[in-house]
Amino acid sequence: MIVRQQILTRSDEPLTLWEGIEKKPQLCLLFGPAEGLRTGQLQKRLRDAFPHTLLVGCSTAGEITRDRALQNIFTVTAFASNKTRFRISRASISDEQSAVQTGELLGRSLWSDDLRYVFVLYNGLITNDILLLAGLRGTLGKNTVISGGFAGDDDTFAGNVLVEDDVIYTNNILAVGFYGTSLHVRSASGSGWIPYGPHMTITKSAKNIVRELDGKRALDIYKDHIGTDSDRLPATGLLHPLWVQSSAGDDSPAIRVIYAVNPEQGTINLSGPVSDGDQVRLMLSNYTQLIGGAADAARRAAFEKDKGANIAIINSCSGRRTVLGVSTDLEIEAIASRLPACPIFTGFYGNAEIGAHETSGRCELLNQSVVVTQILEE
């Protein structure tokens, strides 16, 4: 497999990533700022340069390379192989009821006996994520690795876009299938967040909105626990995610971020659906724990020492970047130190991650986590 990457600070810079290579690329992954992608300039130039190449990507809250985390730049990563083939499938989501069926249809459109990996990009309604993944996961089965992320846009939950060829999409899901019997994929996630404090029960909720905790207004309880940081909500919700254990008892605990609050109604909006009876706790972390979580994900995604992957795809949470601040590069360095033989990283900081839960190993919607996926063609 041939993989080449170019970093562009402007959409009109010369495209040099494929110079000197006779075989044309089959797939290009494009990540960059939403404002730049909306112009369509770079997509058109890539389409003109590689008219028969699959082009897919999304807006981000920061781009990832092997050397460092970047922001407001474009990364173009191109793939070509005589052994691996690629296919893109896209679906739009009109309502919550159709989310599971959409995931199933997407899985069926990609399915083949030699499907090894599905890379997912999403920017639809946040309450649909888990249902979509359930449909996709149920169709593809346990032997197909699934990972990816929710498009970002400067740490906001609105205005992000997906790209397929030279078309911009919103409220869609894009999935790229990687096929081939010579293809090997390993993926793992890590967080570094630790639950603390008392268990609280969600006593009144609707979808992803928590109205009451232990019979009291949820926002009041949450503010009491986070102290002076409550003055800067919802921005400081990234610093105080919640540990959520489903009342059904059949799921591993999830990390959920508070991304909106309603002071009048006393509610908090989480980055995933919850149900009455679910247990929650606050979570805490620090630089050392977050970087350790990233390193652990890389360690579990690594191949044997004598096998260097062709590329690693990294999906991390914009909230982690907010917490780490100027130390964000240390997260990338920690991953790179565990994957010394992998020459190219691509990926992005987004509003949520898709990947194997660090406890259960099942593909889930993740928050405040980093997902490391290595691809090796033998």
Structural account:
The model has no long low-confidence stretch (mean pLDDT 92). The termini are close together. This protein is α+β, with helices and mostly antiparallel strands. It is 21% helix and 39% strand. It has helices at residues 34-39, 41-49, 99-110, 129-140, 218-226, 287-301, 318-324, 328-338; strands spanning 2-8, 27-32, 54-59, 63-64, 69-70, 74-80, 85-92, 115-122, 145-150, 162-164, 167-169, 172-179, 183-190, 194-206, 209-213, 216-217, 242-245, 254-256, 258-262, 267-270, 279-284, 311-317, 345-350, 352-356, 363-366, 370-377. The strands form 5 sheets. Strands 14, 15, 16, 17, 18, 19, 20 and 21 form an 8-stranded antiparallel beta sheet that branches. It has a 6-stranded mixed beta sheet with strand order 1-6-2-3-10-11. The chain has a 6-stranded mixed beta sheet with strand order 7-12-8-9-24-25, covered by helices on one side. The chain is globular.
Largest sheet: 8 strands, antiparallel
Q: What Rg is obtained from the alpha carbons, in whole angstroms?
A: 20 Å
Termini distance? 8 Å
Q: Helix tally?
A: 8
Q: Helical residue percent?
A: 10-25%
Structural class category: alpha+beta
Oligomer: single chain
Task: Report the principal-axis shape.
Answer: globular
Low-confidence stretches are none
| Beta-strand segment tally | 26
Task: Give the overall average pLDDT.
Answer: 92
